[in-house]
Hints:
This protein is of the alpha/beta class. The protein has one domain: TIM Barrel (Alpha-Beta Barrel). 32% of the residues lie in helices and 21% in strands. It has helices spanning 13-21, 45-51, 69-76, 93-102, 148-162, 176-179, 192-195, 200-210, and strands at 2-6, 27-33, 59-64, 80-86, 106-111, 129-133, 167-171, 187-190. It has an 8-stranded parallel barrel with strand order 1-2-3-4-5-6-7-8, surrounded by 4 helices. Helix 1 links the parallel strand 1 (2-6) and strand 2 (27-33).
Amino acid sequence: MKIATSFLSCKNIEGAIQKLSATDADFIHVDFIDGKLYKGRCIPFRKLKKIFKYTRKRLDVHLMVKKPKKYIKKFADLNAANITFHIETEKNIEKNLELIRSFGIRAGLSISPDTEPSRLRPYLDKIDLILIMSVMPGAGGQAFMEETIPKIKTISEMARKVNPNIKICVDGGINEDVAKKLKSIDMMVVGSYITNQKNFQEAIDVLRDAIQ
């Protein structure tokens, strides 16, 4: 299983990215919020653009924005491996997925805890990954919502029947105990559990041991 590490809850973002870059995490996860689709900590793109000179790791970009098209090309230029945006944006979903793929980047859709899994069905053959939110989008440090576990299973089974190569990712409130319940997914996004520790690599090692 791959691990993407988030720095959303860190005050010293530059320092956190440098420390995360020294670990064996697979990706640096970028939550970008415009404050229109969801409320939360908004880090201006101009600041993010400067920050990523501190890492050579590929980025796993999560756009929590009303109009993804506005930001897709910007993040495509920042060494992004994956770009996901929310199914809740509702408009121009197929066009935005095509735009992401036109840059040679894996395209994904994210889904919030209170959204029906069936909303994803029309796009399962057009996406490379699904990012399932296990907390409400917008704020780091939230507790994992146990009620999302059946939803993760439902989405995984539904998606893989249509697209066996699709990657299932979970984001929010993941710690050692939660990781043990997520062994069937392909990637977990972890923030504060890692960045609240003095040694980031040790925290990542604990997570990797938990999913063995």
